[in-house]
Design brief:
By secondary structure, the protein is an alpha+beta fold. About 20% of the residues lie in helices and about 30% in strands. The protein folds into 2 domains: about 10-60, no CATH class; about 80-130, no CATH class. The protein has 3 helices and 6 strands, in the order βαββαβββα.
């Protein structure tokens, strides 16, 4: 990867439809999709008049990616983390039953979801994914 290039890009993507021709009875045929990207890294927002502009911007942002420039481990991982308290079996609990913390991770990229019966199991999984040894 080119020196100075970010190892990942993260955006909040918003898409919305506007009518392209107010006089048309076929709104669906004249609808134009607008878009915005908000950078999670720097907080800036960029608005696009149409999807073609959005696609061109994303191509420009990722242009420096060189084919074959892939490391053994990914440069970034994105998960939706959920934490909840439940009984030892992960189900809802009866009054007076001891509750423990459970966790799940859902990969943003693949949609794969994993559940963990303890926080230590979660931490071990994250260490394994990142190649970081305990205590680091």
């Amino acid at each position: 990867m080119a020196k100075g290039q970010p190892v990942y890009l993260s955006y909040l993507l918003r898409l919305w439809r506007v009518s392209g021709d107010q006089g048309s009875h076929h709104v669906e045929e004249r609808a134009i999709w607008r878009a915005s990207l908000e950078s999670s890294r720097i907080g800036g927002r960029k608005i696009f008049a149409n999807l073609s502009e959005l696609f061109a911007f994303l191509r420009e942002q990722t242009h420096a990616q060189v084919e074959g420039d892939v490391e053994e481990r990914p440069d970034h991982l994105s998960y939706l983390l959920r934490l909840w308290r439940a009984s030892d079996d992960g189900e809802s609990h009866d009054a007076g039953e001891k509750l423990v913390w459970w966790a799940s991770l859902e990969s943003v990229c693949t949609g794969e979801r994993r559940s963990f019966a303890t926080l230590d199991d979660l931490f071990d999984f994250l260490r394994e994914q990142t190649g970081v040894s305990p205590g680091s």
